[in-house]
Amino acid sequence: MKESLAIQPAARVVRDLARKYLDQAAQAAQRLSDPQDTEALHDFRVALRRLRSLLAAHKTFVKSWLPKKLRRRVKELAAGTGPARDTEVQIAWMEQQRGQVKSHQRPGYQWMMGRLEQRLQEEYQDLHETLPDALGRLHKRMHERLDLIRDDESPPFGAVTAARLLESAEDFRRHLLRVAGDDGEADEAVHQARIKGKRLRYLLEPVAAELDGGKELIRELKDMQNLMGEIHDIQVFSQELGQASEEAGAERLRRLIDLSLTLSPDHPDVEAARRQDERAGLMSLARELHDRHEHLMSRLRAKLTEGEGARFLEHLAAAVAQLQQISANPAADD
Question: Residue 277 belongs to what domain range?
Fold first, then answer.
């Protein structure tokens, strides 16, 4: 029977999990070269996020074997994949809108899709050129340090995790209150709540299978995170669309000026350029984003008003109490 993680020395479990997440990131990175593998980048980012959260939450057991420079490198690798991930999400959303695009909106839609596809191609090319070597160096150096450490004089992992969960749950609760309160900074509140929820989930995941209702807790948290994640994606895309509209307008004006310098005002090419206006399509996309954002915010606030967040935190508190009991009485868990 596999030994419970909750009763093992925290230092040992943290090292084992660090090795596991690092290897998962390396495996996912190898899959990035397969254009048919649409989940490779997502899996790579999740593995690195789990690793980052682990190192940050259990810094006491990490700083003795992992220098700050290497911890910072994990963060930099994760951040470097952000633009590609955002672009993939935006292209997927655009694909969903394809059937609703009217003829006068099509120039703007096609212009935006072309812009995103070109960016994604450039981002993946950059990842292919830089990621293997950077991740390879990190993988090698971390494994070398992990293989040298043998100090297991530390409290049970369950007790340490329970304390971290209580702190993280309180952070999450405060940010959920901000979201529900509609204080004029709802988008930032959702963004911060999403981050706190992720950290909470990554703390809970290693021990969830040992707790009554642990998997259900993960599912409840994921449901809230998915909703907040889509809201955040819309926020990011809205900013991108605003910048894109400025560039589209500038490109259209340059096109008209160039044609006007060489052709007469009534030339068919000049008239065609006047009709080729991306603004209608871009405005339509902006309206769709706005409507979707409002719908999702209403859903999220309704969930919180109906007590979904409070119920989750109550269930989590019971799980933390069980985790503390397992750690204090390991024989009772056999």
Answer: 5-329
pTM of the model: 0.84
Q: What is the pLDDT of residues 204-215, one digit of tens each?
A: 999 999 999 999
In a domain, 134, yes or no: yes
Domain count, the chain: 1
What average pLDDT score do residues 301-307 get? 92
pLDDT in tens, 211-270: 999 999 999 999 999 999 999 999 999 988 888 877 776 666 566 556 566 767 676 765
Q: What residues pair up with 138 in beta bridges, in sequence order?
A: none
Tell me the pLDDT band of 183, cut-offs 50, 70 and 90. Answer: low
| Residue 261, domain CATH | 1.40.20.10
Percent of the chain with pLDDT over 70: 88
Tell me, what's the pLDDT at 1? 46
Per-residue model confidence (pLDDT) at position 157: 95
Answer whether residue 298 is part of any domain: yes
Does residue 334 lie within any of the structural domains? Answer: no
* Domain membership flag for residue 95: yes
